[in-house]
């Protein structure tokens, strides 16, 4: 799930940290030798799914002989976009709907293809290109306890109206985001709902388990979405846009590296599915494996 810090907080971070290359997010690896030229700088946001995807694309490129430098676990779009536009960062696996709504403040299209065309136009003035989007999505999803869902007949977000009281727990930015609590109020008209800020995902889950809160947002690739103890609520009024993974790459890199580079990246995207990402996320978040290791295993299994 792509929860991001407020712009004011990020502005402080930017003022204090000039140059991502200097800080590197604490997860740098040396560039691999390869087809010559400067290393391609692959970045990730500061959550598991993004780091796994960055590793998958980085390792796939290295396997084709391209030099790569990783800048992982960097933070939010407010932090990353300026460095992407300047060329300091050159490649990031993005999520189409969130990039449009959060990155550019626009209303996202209704289909993955519409979003792809829309996002490409938004990025174009900054010299950033999009390659093919994947079937894989990581989107905001809402879960409640299954015993409550069964008892009250709750299968969708709209069904939460059946409850006397609904408490959503989420990170602070969720309260004012349309795909989150703001949508519960403005679109679903849940007058029985209140919001509680809980920054970290682990404590949110514990509060849900205890019954202290009713519903929490999780990633669609979270292992919790497949846990029988929880029920995923249908977003019947579609407040959450489609969130297909798409590589955003500086036009300079795309032009310089040519068709072979684009084909190598697109070959990865063609095999990425939501089920694949859910499994890889589980291996990192639940089983304690390293993102680089699960990325390597999957690439091998996928013949990439």
What's the quick description here?
By secondary structure, the chain is of the alpha/beta class. The chain has helices at 7-16, 20-23, 48-63, 77-86, 96-103, 112-123, 146-152, 181-186, 201-210, 251-269, 274-285, 291-301, and strands at residues 40-43, 68-71, 91-95, 128-130, 140-145, 166-170, 193-197, 216-219, 230-233, 245-250.
Task: Kindly describe this structure.
The protein has twelve helices and ten strands. With 304 residues, it is of the alpha/beta class. The chain has two domains: 7-137 and 242-301, D-Maltodextrin-Binding Protein, domain 2 (3-Layer(aba) Sandwich); 140-233, 3-Layer(aba) Sandwich (D-Maltodextrin-Binding Protein, domain 2), CATH 3.40.190. It is globular, with a radius of gyration of 19 Å. The relative contact order is 0.17.
């Amino acid at each position: 799930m792509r929860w991001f810090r407020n712009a004011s907080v990020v502005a402080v971070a930017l003022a204090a940290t000039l140059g991502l290359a200097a800080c590197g997010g604490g997860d740098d690896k040396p560039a691999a030798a390869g087809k010559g030229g400067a290393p391609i700088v692959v970045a990730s946001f500061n959550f598991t799914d993004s780091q796994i995807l960055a590793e998958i694309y980085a390792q796939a490129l290295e396997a084709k002989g391209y030099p790569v430098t990783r800048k992982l676990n960097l933070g939010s779009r407010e932090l990353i976009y300026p460095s992407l536009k300047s060329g300091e960062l050159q490649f990031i696996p993005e999520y189409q709907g969130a990039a449009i709504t959060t990155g550019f403040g626009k209303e996202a299209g209704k289909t993955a293809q519409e979003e792809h065309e829309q996002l490409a136009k938004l990025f174009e003035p900054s010299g950033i290109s999009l390659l093919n989007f994947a079937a894989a999505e990581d989107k905001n999803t809402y879960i409640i306890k299954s015993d409550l869902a069964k008892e009250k007949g709750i299968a969708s977000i709209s069904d939460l109206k059946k409850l006397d009281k609904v408490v959503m727990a989420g990170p602070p930015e969720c309260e004012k985001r349309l795909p989150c609590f703001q949508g519960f109020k403005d679109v679903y008209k849940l007058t029985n709902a209140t919001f509680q800020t809980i920054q970290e995902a682990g404590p949110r889950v514990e509060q849900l388990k205890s019954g202290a809160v009713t519903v929490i947002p999780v990633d669609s690739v979270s292992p919790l979405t497949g846990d029988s103890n929880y029920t995923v609520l249908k977003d019947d009024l579609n407040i959450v846009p489609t969130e297909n993974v798409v590589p955003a790459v500086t036009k300079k890199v795309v032009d310089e590296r040519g068709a072979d580079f684009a084909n190598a990246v697109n070959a990865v995207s063609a095999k990425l599915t939501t089920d694949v990402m859910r499994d890889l996320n589980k291996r990192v978040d639940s089983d304690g494996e390293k993102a680089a290791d699960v990325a390597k295993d999957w690439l091998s299994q996928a013949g990439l």
